[in-house]
Design a protein that fits this description.
The structure is a homodimer of 425-residue chains. With 425 residues, chain A is of the alpha/beta class. The first copy, chain A, folds into 2 domains: 240 residues, Aldehyde Dehydrogenase, Chain A, domain 1; 146 residues, Aldehyde Dehydrogenase, Chain A, domain 2, CATH 3.40.309. Chain A is 43% helix and 20% strand. The mean pLDDT of chain A is 95. The interface between A and B is large, with 64 and 64 residues. Strand 16 of chain A pairs parallel with strand 13 of chain B.
Chain lengths: 425, 425
């Protein structure tokens, strides 16, 4: 912390970091895909070769963790191992294999006057990324930002500071070795909480802020940020089992959506069932969910069919449990399901199970969510499942980026018009 | 104003308008392209058939105009005529002929597990559009918003209130006639300045705000808006005449970029000339620009070559004159031109004139502007010239929409994944 302990002015420090990032972003924007991929591969090599340093730093974080009041689960997420470092390194190599998004011709045409107009993909510039304690995210986020031509300012949690520093040292060394500016990836070297506020005011240098963490972090960023924010907000995801559903398929999709990883944003929180099949479907479903430890909060009609469940409050239908809890409601028809999803949901991920083509089409057309699933688990709303190759988060916004954010979502475009002396009449 | 004079609570009025817009947007999002086009054509018919009502209302605005201190030019922009109404009507018909952007499959793939994933274009939702005194913008903006599936709240200038009301009456009547919700197009019926502030807080109902007007309006909106904003900020546009330029072509491009319509954002404000050709190029250029009444503000080197010009201050190079004034600077090479554009420009539109392929490629790659022109006038950065068909503004942002904003720029997308029971391992 020597650099910082001497730097009393956090605002000046933040401005210096942001300016350096902006300068680096200009060079990164015109770096070749080859050079960026060399960096990714060299960083992977260094992480393998010098993993011992990272593990030693991680050990310091793990020792300090109980003092931060971290839960066992949080400490497990913080823990690195040789195997986890190997997966960090191979993730970098996977990103190296993705196509370079920068310079892609998105579309183009020749205008009647002969002007050749193309839309060319360009980086956004500088990304300010705020995240919590998993140190593998440090390498991942840096890789996605740099591969898409953006400089990144990483603000990790204080619980992972030593691990993040050790990883950052290797990432920066690799940048230097391949001739890219080291300030392309910077780690915020102060745990002073006011630092975030300073960065959020610097829209002159920072083009987008991406907060990944709890609701309070996101709300703070939304309130203070002076630049665009890509939010990763809550997922109140539904599975609607239609009257024309294959009930066996519905059962598997509900179980997978709820139980496969209940603590994530694309897990289902609410089950809607068409009244015509409720009696046939819900009793078995209740047994299966109960066996997996799922607590059921039910409307009156579903409660009679799901023994051992409790009554749902209106609030239950608006809650992202992130846990083995599921709210259940019987609906009269597709329309009522659509209304429920619109009023109670969070426009994240919603699924229908049906063999009725019209119902499937209507659901896909009307549900206004980042991802709409037809006969598939809500858990598929992610960058890997959708083929993006890598993701820095799942946006709950409609503006700029929606759903999984990979390389493309961290870019903008410019028009390039090539002429032969055209002037306007 | 009867509805409003009775409504003392502007906040309640704004909330009611915004809620109605949100409700309408849900219906518009799933309206067919055919129905939206019927509306456009019917509105054009009504404007032709009942143009007299609009002209009478316009007369009231024109009579009140001197009282608002409007300049002659502003009064001219406010004035409608049968010919201008005809062009308003035919603009609606042109927009009807554009393809429906909603529902377009942007891209898609089949994942290894058989999941069919597509990205489908969807409307943003509700647009809050703030603009100044030209009443033709009322119909144009409504057409672009509705065709892209969005409801719009129109806040025009008080100087055009009667004209806007008359046009809005016809637009709303046509909505009703074709079975679309009348609240798809609403006009803010109060001239109370606090109304804008209320709307800017309603991110629950309004998805994007588009201010089109002077800098102070845009700055106010940026400061107060709680939802995304598509800005239409300043254009400090450059023409760089390279050493390898065809000087005849350069002359025509400079004249067109500066003089064809000096008061608009994509007019050139600054001329950069490579030192190697300055002596051959600038004296003739000076004569030609002088003859067109252009005032020249020059660096030391260019001043010697452009008789009758005055010395430029550093501020001149940062100024959007929007007038027949041009700043001029001789640069040593392409690099210096690129640096100048990056530090003094506004990333709007910049042009190079050259026959050197490498210089053209470097300029197009490095200049970070919404539009980069090679051997063409800066004036071509607009929706019509780039083939968008219609535009609601030219965005100076990099996030979401950059450059001309047409139908596509008022949309988002959602992922639709169709499966056959896939669950996540």
């Amino acid at each position: 912390m020597s650099t910082i302990s001497e730097m009393t002015d956090v605002a000046a420090y933040a401005a210096q970091v942001a300016r350096a990032a902006k300068d680096a972003s200009r060079r990164l924007a015109v770096a070749s895909g080859q050079q960026k991929d060399q960096w990714l591969c060299r960083a992977a090599e260094l992480i393998r070769a010098r993993g011992g340093e990272v593990l030693a730093a991680n050990q310091r974080d793990l020792e300090a963790a109980p003092g931060y009041g971290l839960s066992t689960a949080a400490i497990d997420r913080l823990r690195l191992s040789i195997a986890r470092l190997e997966s960090v390194a191979s993730a970098l190599e996977e990103i190296a294999r993705l196509p370079n998004p920068v310079g892609e011709i998105i579309d183009g045409s020749v205008r009647p006057n002969g002007l050749e107009v193309s839309r060319v993909r360009v980086p956004l510039g500088v990304v300010f990324f705020i995240y919590e304690s998993r140190p593998n995210v440090t390498a991942d986020a840096a890789a996605i930002c740099v591969k898409s031509g953006n400089a990144v300012i990483l603000r990790g949690g204080k619980e992972a500071l030593h691990s993040n520093r050790a990883l950052h040292t290797l990432l920066a060394l690799a940048l230097d070795e391949v001739g890219l500016p080291a300030a392309a990836v910077q780690l915020v070297e102060t745990t002073d909480r006011s630092a975030v506020g300073h960065f959020l005011r610097m829209n002159e240098y920072i083009d987008v802020t991406i907060p990944r963490g709890g609701k309070s972090l996101i709300e703070r960023v939304m309130a203070e940020a002076t630049m665009p924010v890509i939010k990763h907000y809550d997922g109140i995801c539904h599975v609607y089992v239609d009257r024309a559903a294959d009930l066996e398929m519905a059962r598997a999709i509900v179980v997978n959506s709820k139980c496969q990883r209940p603590g994530v944003c694309n897990a289902a929180e609410s089950l809607l069932v068409h009244a015509a099949i409720a009696e046939r479907f819900l009793p078995d479903m209740a047994r299966e969910l109960k066996a997996r430890g799922v607590e059921l909060r039910c409307c009156e009609r579903s409660r009679r069919l799901m023994p051992g469940s409790r009554a749902a409050t209106d609030d239950d239908y608006r809650t992202e449990f992130l846990d083995l809890i599921l709210s259940v409601r019987v609906v009269d028809d597709l329309e009522q399901a659509l209304e429920h999803i619109d009023s109670y949901g969070s426009h994240h991920t919603d699924a229908i199970v049906t063999n009725d083509l019209q119902a499937a089409q209507q659901f896909a057309a009307i549900v206004d969510s980042a991802a709409v699933m037809v006969n598939a688990s809500t858990r598929f709303n992610d960058g890997g499942a959708f083929g993006l190759g890598a993701e820095i988060g799942i946006s709950t916004d409609k503006f700029h980026a929606r759903g999984p954010c990979g390389l493309r979502e961290l870019t903008s475009y410019k028009y390039v018009a090539r002429g032969s002396g055209q002037v306007r009449e």
